[in-house]
Amino acid sequence: MGGSNAPGQPGGVVIALCAGHRCAALTRTRRDGGLAAAVARSSGGMLISAPCLQRCAEGAVGAVALSAGTADSTGPSVWLGGLESAGRLEALRRWVEHWHPGAERAHELPDDLRDAVLGIGPPIRLTPAMR
Q1: pLDDT for 78
Q2: Fewer CB within 10 Å: C terminus or N terminus of the chain?
């Protein structure tokens, strides 16, 4: 996915969607709003399923972070809630589709998603945990 990355330059947007029973059921009704296709077309983007994120009261949740493309984890993640909303999924899809590492304001979520932010979380691990 995506081309070469200069040192220190983000490699792409990483979105981890909760795959817990409730979140999966809520987002399945929206058919992801074209998010998977937008991530596939993006430069270095990844869409991954996360185990239940334990935020069921917040609607369908997910985390968004930027990847350097060379590490096994991302930078800090931004947790979003209410992703079952067609408007929020559409806003997230548009942002991913137009995101570019060199773009001005590339690290900022669009205004349409500001009320979906639940908080800042740890980096998203991009390699499976050893057991």
Answers
A1: 92
A2: C
